[in-house]
Each structure stands twice: as C-alpha cells, then as structure tokens.
Amino acid sequence: MQLPFSGFGCDCESDNDVRSNWRGADQVFIAVLVRADTSGSIHDQYGKALNLYTLRIVESLKDTVFAFGDYDLRTFAAQQHGGLCDFGEFSPNKRYVIFAYEGYFQHLLTASICGRTGPYQSFTSVELQNLRELGKEFRAAKRAHKLPWNEQHSENRKATALQKLREEVQQVSRKLLWTQALVAFLGFIIIVTLLRHWLGRDKSR
C-alpha cells in the first residue's frame, strides 16, 4: 500500500508493507544506537554535512552479521539539512527496525523516512513475524545457493580420486603383466637351456 508522505522537505510515497520494504533493502535488522556524531564534521562527496549514527545489530533479518568484534556495528549517514529523505531520528537505549541501503558514501548506510524504518514498538507482532520468516527464508536460500558448489566440489574430488585410483590400478596391472611376461620368458629360456643340456648329454653317450 502506497501512502503519500511529506516531511523535512521530502515528498515521497511511503510503502507500509514490510515485505516490500524488506525486498527493496540491502540489509534489514533490529539494532540499538551505540553512538551519534551530530557535529557535522563529516561531509559526503557533495560537501554536505552529515550526522553519523552507529548502531549495534541485535537481530539480523537480512544479510549476514558476525557477532564478534565490531562486525555487528553499522553506521548510518543523514544529511543535516532539510530537503532529504534520510532517516536520522535515532535515540539511545531504543530498538529500531531498520531497512538499510548501501552505496551512498564510503561504507555508510542510509535509511529512508519514506520506508518503514522506525522504532521497534511501531511494528505489530504480525509484521515482526513476517520479517523473521523472510530472514529465515533468506538464510536458507543463501545456504542452498552454496550447496551446489559444495556438492559439485565434493563430486569433483571423488571423480578425481577415482580416476587417480584407476590409473594406479592400470599401472600396477601393466607392471604385473610385464613381470609375468618376463618370468614366462625366463622360464622358457631356462627350460630350453636345460633341454639342450640334456640332449647334448644324451648324444655324448
């Protein structure tokens, strides 16, 4: 459902459907504000002053999050002045459901006031359940996407090992045949030599 929205000089159509927002976002997660820098000392590539908000992810609903070191931290940028759609209303000790977008400036993420990014309490239990189901499907699909490569890699290793075993068996078989032929030839020579020796003795008598 598209709802007209206007705020901070930003005109947009807001989509209230969490599934649509989830599909359109690069990352989706529940997070808590860790620190905020509203000094305006950081500027984007256009020279616009930015507010920076660093949040710690407490639950990932799209994308992979490593819960060690600072890998579970994400930093958002919001331009300080109006006319933009950046979401920048983060407060300490408050959980947010965030639909994040990549590729704005360096490693910084953005969230839009035109989407559903907002306080955790503003989402219904059904919406949160829908998001968690989407996150579960996303992780399952990501694992399934890797499985064919793993299975193919395993099959390739098996095929290579089997081929190598066949080659080794063939080499052993060839060596065995040559050995048997050599033994047979030597046996033939010995028999012929003995026969000639015995025949020679008989003639000498």
Characterise the protein shown here.
By secondary structure, this protein is α+β, with helices and mostly antiparallel strands. Helices cover 42% and strands 32% of the residues. It contains two helices and eight strands. The chain has helices spanning 18-24, 125-204; strands at 2-7, 10-15, 27-43, 49-62, 73-79, 95-105, 108-110, 118-119. Strands 3, 4, 5, 6, 7 and 8 form a six-stranded antiparallel β-sheet that branches. The protein has a two-stranded antiparallel ribbon with strand order 1-2. Strand 3 and strand 4 (49-62) form a beta hairpin. The longest helix has 80 residues, at 125-204. It starts with a strand and ends with a helix. The model is unreliable at 1-8 and 147-153 (pLDDT under 50).
Helix content: 40-55%
Q: Helical segment tally? A: 2
- Overall number of strands: 8
- Strand fraction: 25-35%
Shape: rod-shaped
Mean pLDDT: 79
Cα separation of the termini:
122 Å
Alpha-carbon Rg, integer: 37 Å
| Low-pLDDT stretches | 1-8, 147-153
Largest sheet: 6 strands, antiparallel
Q: What structural category do the secondary elements indicate?
A: alpha+beta
Write down the secondary-structure element order. Answer: EEHEEEEEEH
